[in-house]
Specification:
This protein has two domains: 3-37, no CATH class; 62-92. Helices cover 26% and strands 15% of the residues. It has two helices and three strands. The two termini are 42 Å apart.
């Protein structure tokens, strides 16, 4: 279940709750008025090899955009060049 952040304007209180998507906003514990849902940024954590956080920064690989540029350069040479590039596992 997602974590939602709520705010009570009259009481100036913030609260975080784990709720289902279809649940209504809670009432403030102090004034019993409905709290308003706040917009927050979502966070994510990618696990495994191949993500910038665990390969590129450690020098084990290249940035995904650089890889895309390299593949586009090889694609301009023709399909055989792309196949050779991928088969060799090049990352330059």
């Amino acid at each position: 279940m997602p974590i939602y952040r709520y705010r009570c304007q009259p009481c100036d209180i913030d609260d975080e709750l784990i709720q289902k998507l279809d649940e209504d906003a809670p009432d403030c514990e102090r004034c019993d008025k409905p709290m308003t849902k706040q917009v927050t940024s979502a966070t994510s954590h990618f696990k495994g090899e191949g993500w910038e956080t665990n390969t590129h920064k450690k020098g084990k690989g290249i940035h995904p955009l650089q890889m895309q540029e390299n593949l586009l350069r090889e694609a301009a040479k023709g399909p055989a060049a792309v196949e050779k590039y991928v088969a060799e596992g090049r990352s330059d």
